[in-house]
Amino acid sequence: MNKATFYHAGCPVCLGAEHMLAEAIDPKYQIESVHLGENTDRILEAEKAGVKSVPALVLNDQAFHINFGASIEDLKH
Amino acid sequence: MNKATFYHAGCPVCLGAEHMLAEAIDPKYQIESVHLGENTDRILEAEKAGVKSVPALVLNDQAFHINFGASIEDLKH
User: Fold this and answer.
1) Least CB–CB distance from A25: residue in B2, B26, B68
2) Which of A29, A58, A31, A28 shows the shortest CA–CA distance to A43?
3) For A16-44, how does the pLDDT look when each residue is reduced to its tens digit (9 = 90+)?
């Protein structure tokens, strides 16, 4: 199963990107949505995958940044 | 038929995003790939859809910027 992880912080830009993904990603992907503001324990995992800002989509370990909502640095505090 | 237009400029960042799209976008979308550096006559159309930089994906008239390759302003010259 292909895995798609969507990292966000609940921002309006994030929600727009999430809506797009839910609509446009191939159903062969299993999508998990992670709110990094509420799940700060997963920030390290996101950074390891190359996530520098949210919203971001990690597809099979490759990170893609979609538009710009917030820097991942700002989510650590 | 849903329409997805991918605007790019041949940059490495663009190619990575295009590969992701070809792999991950739902097959219900018809994907058109437009090289704005070679097709400057389509820059206006991209701007009208809200494209500010490439690579960008326009899904049914909504623009999403994926990572950052080049500003659309730089493609006009």
Assistant:
1) B26
2) A58
3) 888 888 889 999 999 999 999 999 999 99
